[in-house]
Amino acid sequence: AKAHELGYKLEHFWLGDAGLSHRRMSDIFTARGISGLIVASHLPENGRPLHLDWTKFSAVKIDYYPHEPVLHNVTNDQRAIMRMAVQRILAAGYHRIGLVMPRWWDEFGDLAWSAGFLAEQQWLPKKDQIPILYFAEGSAVRGETLVPAKPFADWMQRYQPEVLLSLARFVGPRLKELGLLVPRDVAFVEFFHESEGGSMTGVRHNCERVGALAVETLVGQMQQHTFGVPELPITSLVEGTWVDGETLPRRPVAPAGPSFELPKGGNA
Could you tell me whether strands 202-204 and 241-243 are parallel, antiparallel, or unpaired per DSSP bridges? Predict the structure, then answer.
């Protein structure tokens, strides 16, 4: 939509086509008069370097992979999104927060998820600091993204989180197996909320803005005839939007303790 608004046509090319080398791809772009490239988000295992003839192109990538070449990139601000989630949870009266996610999710965001969570967790009392429950999972395109049953049950039993920070598809079926209901037994916040409403509490990623900003960044380079790998690449971060729901009910504020007043002119 943004490309059309700015007077450009956006075409999709698939790097995975059989027999399509990076050199051949560069030749196709050049023959068709294409000088601006948006490198779409890649999974970590597909993050091998792209050996295009970058001197002929303006370029920007979405998210962090592939790592090479180091281009200007646009992404959701996962670190700030996680910090927002923890801050909102604390403001709602909860203290023991458990983060559950596949390890590849953290790698996909260049460890921004864990960085944001741990940045906020460090200010909590030690007794409320619950270690992140990572689980092994290759990628979303291979198999299930459900946390393994026993490690999850053991972690829940040991740390007794008051609220889970995760995705429903990671932990929802496991909670049912344990007989736990949200929010009766444990509150829940979705850190990758995919809609603007509904009953789920969480943080919505503004992916539409990420796409539009990638186009704006690319068009700016093209209009200035800036080609090649930048000497000083810039990362643009798009903030998330908090979505109120029913899975994080506000806890009542505990009554204040007794107050004492020293007698006037007396000693304590």
Answer: antiparallel
Q: Identify the pLDDT of residue 141.
A: 45
CA distance 54 to 124: 47
Q: Which of 210, 204, 208 is nearest to 237 (CA)?
A: 210
Give the tens place of pLDDT for each residue, 70-124. 999 999 999 999 999 999 999 999 999 999 999 988 988 889 999 999 999 999 9
Q: Name the burial class of residue 55, with classes exposed (0-12), middle (13-18) and buried (19+) by CB atoms within 10 angstroms of its CB.
A: exposed
